[in-house]
Amino acid sequence: MNTLWPRSRLLRNSRLLRRADTIVDAAAKVFAERGYHGTSTQAIADVLNLRQASLYYYFPSKEAALELVCERGVDGFVETAEAIVAETGPPLEKLSRLISAHLAPNASKRDYVKVFINERRYLADASRRRIGRKSRRIERCFEEVIRAGIADGSIRAGVDVRLTMLTVLGMVNSVINWREDDQGRGMREVAAKLSELVVAGLAKPATVRRRS
């Protein structure tokens, strides 16, 4: 039996997928600008010059749209972080790379990241728990690298691993809400400066001197 789709059907589905991406992009933009409670499906439709009813072909409700945007907002973070942890290298260098990788999507998919950071608390319980499991995997990556630094002596003994992880992630997650002027230098430069601050705060004095 021929399982290949006719070219016309392939093209039609390709167009539908591109259209779906455009619509979810619009939802991310409106959620990022107005927040979940300030957004309506009509506002999303207005951005696209569509009838409100047309959106329901792609998502059944505002809640479902938020879930789609949050999923895309966190997509790739876990895989990238876990790959960094699995590679060889000094823990402090891995920590710097984790920070850079965590900030990179601020430039490539800013609206999605902003919605994930600020609005995921409004997800339905089941969706929030499911997406929250990805957040906890990211947390474990940072914790593992911090523990490795304590173990090899590059990070000061007595550092509270969980408190440090929460502090570092809280700092890098806040960047998405900085004023545009403060973000204008670019995410690479911001990541480099924040990594420098974190490493200087955690490393043993002798370790800092060797890296300088």
User: Can you count the beta strands?
Assistant: 0
Averaged pLDDT:
87
Which regions contain 5 or more consecutive residues with pLDDT less than 50?
1-13, 207-212
Q: What is the first-to-last residue Cα distance?
A: 66 Å
Strand content: under 5%
Helix/strand/pairing category: mainly alpha
Main beta-sheet strand count, sense and barrel state: none
Over the alpha carbons, how many angstroms does the gyration radius reach?
A: 21 Å
Shape: elongated
The percent range for helix content is over 70%
**How many alpha or pi helices?**
13
Order of helices and strands: HHHHHHHHHHHHH
What does this structure look like?
The protein is an all-alpha fold and 212 residues long. It is elongated, with a radius of gyration of 21 Å. It has helices at 7-34, 41-48, 52-55, 62-74, 77-86, 91-103, 105-108, 110-119, 125-152, 161-174, 180-183, 187-202, 205-211.
Task: Provide a brief overview of the structure.
The chain has helices at 7-34, 41-48, 52-55, 62-74, 77-86, 91-103, 105-108, 110-119, 125-152, 161-174, 180-183, 187-202, 205-211. By secondary structure, it is mainly α. α5 runs parallel beside α9.
